[in-house]
Amino acid sequence: MPGRFEAADDLERALTRVGELLEAEGEPWDIVIVGGAALNLLGIVARPTVDVDVLALGKPGRSHRVEQPPDALPSSLARAIRTVARDMRLPEDTPRATTSARTAATSGISWH
User: Fold this and answer.
1) Of 75, 71, 61, 66, nearest to 98 (Cα)?
2) CA count, 13 A, side-chain hemisphere, 53
3) Alpha carbon of 83 to those of 31, 45, 93, 94, 96: distances in Å?
4) What confidence category does residue 9 fall into, taking pLDDT thresholds of 50, 70 and 90?
5) Tell me: the pLDDT tens digits for 33-62?
6) 8 falls in which pLDDT band (50, 70, 90)?
7) Could you tell me how many helices (H) and strands (E) the chain has, helices first?
8) Residue 99 region by backbone torsions, left for phi larger than 0, else alpha for psi between -120 and 50, else beta
9) CA gap 29, 9 in Å, rounded
10) Would you put residue 26 in left (φ > 0), alpha (ψ -120 to 50) or beta?
């Protein structure tokens, strides 16, 4: 069904494509994914999902330093996500920021 990831393969294909677009722009990002998308990718669950919750992000080459993401995704990352969402017929409001999950999940984390 258009508008959601039916299987982990679809999700992995979308994330790979986002990475390829960012690499082509010379703007790669490392992201930490949580929630249903992460569980799907790990094979723990097999259920459709419409979003990818990003808990943190970082720039490659910085000793894999993970940084708390800003309220808005970096423009290069948001642009790549929108392109892949359009191509895969995902919701028009992609990317969506879900800060409530991030705040709850990171309350005990020290960001460096």
Assistant:
1) 71
2) 18
3) 18, 27, 12, 9, 14
4) confident
5) 888 888 989 999 988 877 788 877 777 766
6) confident
7) 4, 2
8) alpha
9) 21
10) left
